[in-house]
Amino acid sequence: MTKPPRSKPLLRDTEPPIRSKPRQKRNPAQPQLLFDPMPDRVEPALAQLKAKPPTGNEWSWEVKWDGYRLAVHIEPRGIRILTRGGHDWTHRFPAIEQAARALGPATMIIVGEAVVLDEEGRPDFGLLQQSLGASGRQAGGRASDAVLYAFDLIYFDGHDLRGLEYRSRRHLLEDMLNGPMNGQPDAIRLSETLDAEPAVLLEHVCRLGLEGIVGKHLDRSYRSGRTGDWVKVKCIQSEAFFVIGYEKSAASPAGFGSLVLAAYRGADLVHVGSVGTGFRQAEIIRLRTMLDKLRWKRKQPPLPYSGSADIVWVEPTLIAEIEFRAWTTDGKLRHPSYKGLRERQDNADVFRLD
């Protein structure tokens, strides 16, 4: 018996046709073009952090993948893989590039999250960073084993889809990735929607050791920035902080005891505590080498500090992704654990205190 389709096809004869957006002014360099020119880059839509998921049938839920946001541009001239900050990292994701070629010849922009999976099939941010080279400065830096979990389609076959509601874009994405002609390339996979109450889903994904869930409003168009159309609920809080120093370690003279962290408050940096767990030994040595090249050359530390620890201050350049359970009453991270370095090229957001 043939298994019924997971979701209804977008286009049926009995349904009203999809109307195109009003035509905008054409690119002067393409005066005869009949369709929407593919944008060179689209500023990403971002999810707002929520303490608990909203309820209602107007939300679609999926796993929150722990990796790098990418936009894959499939064009007649070739493939471009752009980071959230707009940098071209095509050469750093060769398997995703190859899978994207198999989806042609139609032109499209697929939005998704690049991850590296551990032996149990869970995304591991540390493994992704090892593949890329932690700060982008190592030779090579290719995540050949990375997988893109696609969750949106914002341009397809000459049409800009950003004006369509999310449910329509999602149906097109599902039909394109699961179509009988294309199949689904192994390095580009559909980020499956999860059919259950969001509170139950959150409990389940947390039990599996995943990062959380993301909800997308089915009736909203694609809008860049944190508009509230997309929301995220995390099992464990995870944010990016500046590394502003390290505490020395008597047990490991070539390493350190902990990294000192800072966040923004307005335009100023504020000390939010230290992290001393989550490091592999090789990562400690590598980080110490990087930090010693960034030593603070001024007499005063880079921010107000009232502690008593012996700290070697550094220029606030490196950005670390840190997991933590909560905040203490004095504004410090509770039970922090190091996950890896974020890359400035990926437009990593340093956490801002309210």
UniProtKB/TrEMBL annotation:
Domain ATP-dependent DNA ligase family profile as annotated: residue spans: 139-234
Domain of life: Bacteria
GO biological process: DNA recombination; DNA repair
Family matches, as InterPro entries: ATP-dep_DNA_ligase, DNA_ligase_ATP-dep_C, DNA_ligase_ATP-dep_cent, LigD_ligase_dom, NA-bd_OB-fold
The reaction(s) this protein catalyses: ATP + (deoxyribonucleotide)n-3'-hydroxyl + 5'-phospho-(deoxyribonucleotide)m = (deoxyribonucleotide)n+m + AMP + diphosphate
Keyword Ligase: yes
Swiss-Prot/TrEMBL keywords: Ligase
Family annotation (Pfam families): DNA_ligase_A_C (PF04679), DNA_ligase_A_M (PF01068)
Region (Disordered): 1-38
GO terms, molecular function: ATP binding; DNA ligase (ATP) activity
This enzyme's EC code(s): 6.5.1.1
Gene3D superfamilies per the UniProt record, alphabetical: 3.30.1490.70, DNA ligase/mRNA capping enzyme, Nucleic acid-binding proteins
Keyword Ligase tagged: yes
Matching CDD domains: Adenylation_DNA_ligase_LigD_LigC, OBF_DNA_ligase_LigD
Family: Belongs to the ATP-dependent DNA ligase family.
UniProt name for this protein: DNA ligase (ATP)
